[in-house]
Amino acid sequence: MGQAQSGTEKEVTLQHIPGLHRKFATECPSGNLHLHECRRIFGINRNSTEEESAYMENLFRSFDINQDGKLDFMEYVAAVHLVLRGKLEDKLRWSFKVYDRDGNGCLDRQEVRHIVKIIYAIKKHNDPSITGNIDDICDRLFDVVDKNNDSQISVEEFMEGAERDP
Hints:
two-stranded antiparallel ribbon; 8 helices
């Protein structure tokens, strides 16, 4: 499921905070990072695909811990720490949260299909020769990962599947 563990596990320490704050203050003079600013930072614009925009919204939502529509400095630090220095287990839990659009703690076929469609479209945008059927990919994922065959993937099943196929 694409999450590799880095060899260097470092924490975001107090030494890093002033530099992170300067970067945050430069990018977000209002003191908060809004979705439109996040889009600009990551290069999502009118030329971006619908899938790229949807993926950015999912990423933003996953870091907006208090769900107030903006990232404050502490949410920003948590995001930077997770993405750059987080442990594999934490990254997998975060990935699951991004994919779990309705927040019910399980991934259904619609959620899995949505994320596969986004990833496929982004890959196809970068390499038009890529071929594949989204429904077939979803079926294979459920066959391999949904161990109890309840048509939902729990966070435990997701993490076990990712660890078997990083």
